[in-house]
Design brief:
four-stranded antiparallel β-sheet; elongated; Helix Hairpins; 14 strands; alpha+beta
Length: 317
C-alpha cells in the first residue's frame, strides 16, 4: 500500500513538471517570432540606389525648400568693355612728317596724334592767295567801270549795250573773286587736315604708321579705344530679371587696385535669356575720369537694390 502511494505521488510530480515546461515554451515562442534574424548587408552601390533620394528643391522630410538669394548678395564677374573705338585715318593722302603718340598712350579728344608733310600745301595756299588778290583787283576795276558807265548811260552818252557789257564784266569779276576764295579756303582746309587728331578720349590700342611712310585715303594710322566713360558687362541669373533696373548702383573691384571700389550705375538690362546658361546680360557705366580702368579688365561686381542719382568713380578704402 505504501509503495502504491509513492508511485502515485511521483506520477503527479512528473505531470506538473511537464505542464510547466509547456507553458514556458508557449510564452517564449511569440518573442522569438517578433525578432526575425537580421538580413545580410547590401553592397554600398546597391544600398545607395535602394535608398529613396529627395527631389531637387525638396528636403529629406519631403518639404519643398525655397531657393531665394538676395540680389545684393550676388557677386558676378564681368569685363570692362569700350563703348566705341575709332580707326583714325587721314582725310587726304600724304607722307607722315611726325608722330606724337605711341601704342598704349592715353589721349584726349582733339589731341594731336600725327602731322603730314605740308610743303606743297603751303605753296598752294600762297598761289591761292595771289589768285584771290588778282580776282579782287579785277572786281574793283570792273566796279569802277560800271559806276562810270552808269553816269554816261544817264546822260545818254553811251548805248545800253555798252553798259550791259560793263555789267557782265563786273559779274564775271565777282564770280572770279568767289572762286579764288574757295580755292584758298580749300588749301587752308588741307593744311588743317594734315594734322590728325584724336576723335575721343581714350587709349591708342594700335599704331600702324611711322615717320616717312605714305598714307593713302584708306590708310589707318591709329586705332583709338574710348575709356571714359567705360562699360562693365556681366551676366545675372534669370530669376533676378524683375529686380534689375536701370539706375541701380554697381560697385566693382579689380585685382590691379586691391581694396578699392569703383562705382557706376546700370545702363542696360538685356531682355533675352541665354538658353544655355539661363542668364541675361547687364551693362553698367563707369565715369573712369582718371582713366585707371581699361577695356578687357575683369571685375567682381556687387549690386545694390536702390538707384542712385549721382555717380562718381571716387574710391573707398
Amino acid at each position: 500500500m505504501k509503495s502504491k502511494m509513492l508511485a502515485l505521488a511521483a506520477a503527479l510530480l512528473l505531470a506538473a513538471a511537464c505542464s510547466a515546461d509547456k507553458k514556458a515554451a508557449d510564452t517564449e515562442k511569440p518573442a522569438a517570432e517578433a525578432t526575425p534574424a537580421a538580413a545580410p548587408e547590401l553592397p554600398s552601390d546597391v544600398a545607395q540606389l535602394a535608398t529613396p533620394q529627395p527631389a531637387p528643391g525638396e528636403s529629406a522630410g519631403g518639404k519643398i525648400e525655397e531657393a531665394g538669394t538676395a540680389l545684393s548678395s550676388l557677386e558676378p564677374t564681368g569685363e570692362f568693355v569700350s563703348p566705341s573705338s575709332s580707326q583714325v585715318a587721314p582725310k587726304m593722302p600724304g607722307r607722315v612728317a611726325a608722330v606724337y603718340v605711341d601704342e598704349g598712350s592715353r589721349v584726349g579728344r582733339g589731341q594731336t596724334l600725327l602731322t603730314m608733310e605740308t610743303d606743297y600745301i603751303r605753296l598752294d595756299i600762297k598761289r591761292a592767295e595771289a589768285d584771290l588778290a588778282r580776282a579782287k583787283a579785277a572786281e574793283a576795276d570792273a566796279r569802277r567801270e560800271i559806276d562810270r558807265k552808269k553816269g554816261l548811260l544817264a546822260s545818254e552818252s553811251i548805248p545800253q549795250a555798252t553798259f550791259d557789257r560793263a555789267q557782265a564784266a563786273l559779274d564775271q569779276a565777282q564770280a572770279g573773286r568767289a572762286s579764288a576764295e574757295v580755292v584758298l579756303a580749300t588749301a587752308k582746309q588741307k593744311l588743317t587736315d594734315s594734322v590728325i587728331r584724336s576723335p575721343m578720349t581714350g587709349v591708342v590700342s594700335e599704331r600702324r604708321t611711322n615717320v616717312g611712310e605714305h598714307l593713302g585715303d584708306a590708310g589707318v594710322a591709329f586705332v583709338v579705344v574710348q575709356t571714359a566713360p567705360l562699360k562693365l558687362r556681366f551676366s545675372v541669373p534669370e530669376r533676378f530679371l524683375g529686380e534689375m533696373k536701370t539706375g541701380q548702383p554697381v560697385a566693382a573691384r579689380v585685382d590691379p587696385y586691391p581694396g578699392e571700389v569703383f562705382r557706376g550705375r546700370i545702363k542696360t538690362v538685356g531682355g533675352v535669356i541665354d538658353p544655355a546658361t539661363r542668364t541675361f546680360f547687364a551693362e553698367a557705366e563707369f565715369p573712369n575720369s582718371d582713366g585707371r580702368l581699361r577695356p578687357g579688365l575683369f571685375a567682381r561686381v556687387q549690386l545694390g537694390p536702390e538707384p542712385i542719382t549721382e555717380v562718381s568713380d571716387a574710391k573707398t578704402r
